[in-house]
Amino acid sequence: MARILIVGIGNPLRSDDGLGWHVAHELSRELLRDDVQVIATQQLTPEISDSVSRAELVLFIDAAQSGEPGTLRCEQIVPAGAPGRHSHSLSPATVLGMAQELYGRCPPAHLLTIAAESFATGDTLSASVSAAVPALKANVCSLIGAAKQEDK
Question: By the 8 A CB rule, do 91 and 113 touch?
Fold first, then answer.
């Protein structure tokens, strides 16, 4: 069982919307650790709540629709109630809530975002978002390191 779950969310064919997907693929090559599981997905689905419930820390990575392009944010998130009948409305907080409701366990979680510049058709990130990716990945490593320190 992976102790830390990283979930990168986004459509890699919609420019900056693919941020989470791209970063998840990069981290899966860079973080070669048995205690880290990385999932790249175009959207959150109910099935991810099972993996969330088994982790000790969850890090969601996604592009933000608002804010100054290239601005990095990291916020702790808490479980939210179940959405309506449409899976398109699943948020990281909703997936946490589903983990709690379905499996009785909800680990600490953070949402790391970079404000997008473009959601146009394309398979590359904008310059402002690309420039912020190293800071985002450093933040991921910092959160993993802090979780490791808490175990001691």
Answer: no
- Taking the alpha carbons of 81, 79, 52, 90 in that order, is the dihedral positive or negative? positive
Q: List the strands of the sheet with 36-41, edge to edge.
A: 36-41, 4-9, 57-64, 109-115, 72-77
Pairing of strands 109-115, 72-77: antiparallel
Cβ pair 70, 129 in contact under 8 A = yes
What are 94-137's pLDDT values in tens digits? Answer: 999 999 999 999 999 999 999 999 999 999 999 999 999 999 99
The angle subtended at Cα 86 by Cα 63 and Cα 108, nearest 5°, is: 50
CATH, residue 129: 3.40.50.1450
Report DSSP state, residue 89: G
Pairing of strands 109-115, 4-9: unpaired
Indicate yes or no: pTM above 0.90. Answer: yes
Domain that holds residue 44: 4-151
Given CA atoms 57, 60, 66, 68 in this order, what sign does their dihedral have? Answer: positive
